[in-house]
Amino acid sequence: xxxxxxxxxxxxxxxxxxxxxxxxxxxxxxxxxxxxxxxxxxxxxxxxxxxxxxxxxxxxxxxxxxxxxxxxxxxxxxxxxxxxxxxxxxxxxxxxxxxx
Amino acid sequence: xxxxxxxxxxxxxxxxxxxxxxxxxxxxxxxxxxxxxxxxxxxxxxxxxxxxxxxxxxxxxxxxxxxxxxxxxxxxxxxxxxxxxxxxxxxxxxxxxxxxxxxxxxxxxxxxxxxxxxxxxxxxxxxxxxxxxxxxxxxxxxxxxxxxxxxxxxxxxxxxxxxxxxxxx
Lengths: 100, 169
Fold this sequence. Notes:
A: 3 helices
């Protein structure tokens, strides 16, 4: 039978893959996709706790997190488009306007 | 049976996440992320969260990833040819840090593994659309309405940001 530890372990591994992706990739769009992956990993943790406790509040929280993630994706991609218009690149090592 | 299904979906999710990080082509990365979202929806089904499984496919694998692919095609971003062709200290440090994070989370999971609940008996009933809608429109009505305002604000803000042009002079 399934244990809750397995779901938490899968969520931890996916979160860490997202961290590695944010650290090693240089394309801003791919970094953004890795952040979405990390959000999904945390959602999996919330859903598994909610199901194993028999309490739906965690799943409702995931629903709101999904809505916020959709809004965040829209605004983030608009920012990436604006950066591309001014710099003609989405490589984060070449976008250094605010870098010290 | 259900254990094998979980292992299949978990391997698919982890494999597609790794492929997304390693792949040089940006479009292929986005498509691997779609595979990851779909297998995660399957895992939600194993947890009896049917409502969230459907929402995951509709919103994430459908809407958000289409938006990502649109932006990738629109910007015509080139592949990262230089990824992984020589050893860099940065990559090594990134993998060390990722391993450290996964070790920390595993350690904290192992510390509380006896206190975690057994599979609850009413698990099958709580994840249905009926149960979710019942709570969503009574107890969480105000946050639900706030979500509508948030999405409207996000659309207006995205239009403003994407149209804004710096005058070069």
